[in-house]
């Protein structure tokens, strides 16, 4: 958003939550330093999303400013909170999910419900790590260690410790 759009958003936000104006006035004499910092946080968001979030905050359909539940909103959290809620309006799948190629043919995952469950859990684990990172691979290895250790099928015990087929399946989107 541009600085003019930010001013439009702040005017709208202050109309919905007049107490924020007192916070800005008390934070610095002109309020300029505070609003400049707020603008820097919200600059990456669109004016449309910021206005939508403000409306939803006012209506109570989105999580309020931290502290609101106790009756004392922490207005210093406003820009981060609004930015976070703007991001929630348009959830984006992690990059590694966007580039995963799906296969329609039979495979080790589609043919085995327990492997499908393990694959799903691996995807969940990897959401917490950068794409193709060593940490992510280690976390998945630890999960698969536990998974293969508790699933005592002949194939699981035969392949215990050999995760390459599972990693190949994951990397190829089988």
Key words describing this protein structure:
174 residues, mainly alpha, 2 domains
Question: What can you tell me about this protein's structure?
Answer:
- The protein is mostly helical and 174 residues long.
- The chain has two domains: 3-89, no CATH class; 95-172.
- 63% of the residues lie in helices and 0% in strands.
- It is built from ten helices and no strands.
- α1 (3-16) runs parallel beside α4 (47-59), α3 packs parallel to α5 and α4 (47-59) packs across α5 (78-89).
- The longest helix has 17 residues, at 134-150.
- It is elongated, with a radius of gyration of 24 Å.
- The two termini are 41 Å apart.
- Mean pLDDT is 79; it is low at 151-161.
Structure, briefly:
This protein has 174 residues and is mainly alpha-helical.
CA-CA gap between termini? 41 Å
* Biggest pleated-sheet summary: none
User: What is the H-and-E element order?
Assistant: HHHHHHHHHH
Strand composition percent: under 5%
Arithmetic mean of pLDDT? 79
How much helix, percentage-wise, in residues? Answer: 55-70%
Choose one word for the global shape. elongated
Question: How many H/I helices?
Answer: 10
Alpha-beta content class: mainly alpha
In total, the number of domains comes to: 2
- E-strand count: 0
Radius of gyration: 24 Å
| Low-confidence runs of at least 5 consecutive residues | 151-161
């Amino acid at each position: 958003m541009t600085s003019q759009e930010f001013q439009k958003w702040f005017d709208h936000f202050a109309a919905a939550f007049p107490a924020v104006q007192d916070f800005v006035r008390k934070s610095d004499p002109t309020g300029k330093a505070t609003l400049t910092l707020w603008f820097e946080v919200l600059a990456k968001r669109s004016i449309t999303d910021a206005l939508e979030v403000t409306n939803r905050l006012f209506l109570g359909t989105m999580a309020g400013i931290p502290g609101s539940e106790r009756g004392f909103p922490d207005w210093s959290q406003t820009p981060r909170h609004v930015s976070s809620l703007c991001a929630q309006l348009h959830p984006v799948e992690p990059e590694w999910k966007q580039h995963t190629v799906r296969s329609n043919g039979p495979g080790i995952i589609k043919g085995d419900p327990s492997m499908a469950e393990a694959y799903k859990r691996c995807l969940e684990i990897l959401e917490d790590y950068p794409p193709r990172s060593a940490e992510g691979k280690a976390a998945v290895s630890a999960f698969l260690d536990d998974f293969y250790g508790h699933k005592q099928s002949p194939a699981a015990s035969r392949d215990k410790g050999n995760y390459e087929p599972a990693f190949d399946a994951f990397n190829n989107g089988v």
